[in-house]
Amino acid sequence: MRRRVQTAAMIAITVAATAVLLSSRGPSGPVASSEAAQSGSSLDQIMAQRGLSPEEAEAALKTFVPPGRFDDYVMFTSGGHRGSIMLYGIPSMRLLKEIPVYAPDSWQGWAQGDEIELDQAEIDRQRDDADNDKRRG
């Protein structure tokens, strides 16, 4: 029962975080330029300096999201065996948040305190006692 409540709470938090991320909009005014742009370097000089083709420069500009602005989309991906959910901004592919689901993380209080310190033998004994109670009653 407790596990179901925790899972439901994590789903609710994930949905709320997604709603906040998607409803927020970044500042609409201009964003500060980088040092490379302030020094007077033209795009052609930067491309030549880094050995970029025009297609590569265009792809980089299409995926760049300036600081202070939000990505257009948020992608939810599985953390695989780590037991977490990753939120990536699209098109920048920045990792926005990692949500641990089944992993013990100290920041959210999982696997902390006396209740978690039960060893496997104690857990098995409690399960056996509960099974025996069911058979008797």
- Please state the overall shape, judged from the principal axes of the Cα atoms: elongated
Report the major sheet: 3 strands, antiparallel
Structural class per helix/strand content?
alpha+beta
Quick one: how many beta strands? 3
Overall number of domains = 1
Key features?
137 residues; alpha+beta; three-stranded antiparallel β-sheet; 5 helices; 14% strand; elongated
Word description of this protein:
The protein is α+β, with helices and mostly antiparallel strands. The protein has one domain. Helix content is about 45%, strand content about 15%. The protein is built from 5 helices and 3 strands, in the order ααααβββα. The protein has helices at about 1-25, 35-40, 45-50, 55-65, 120-135; strands spanning about 75-80, 85-90, 95-100. It has a 3-stranded antiparallel beta sheet with strand order 1-2-3, with helices on one face. Strand 2 and strand 3 form a beta hairpin. The protein is elongated and about 80 Å long. Residues about 25-35 have low confidence and may be disordered.
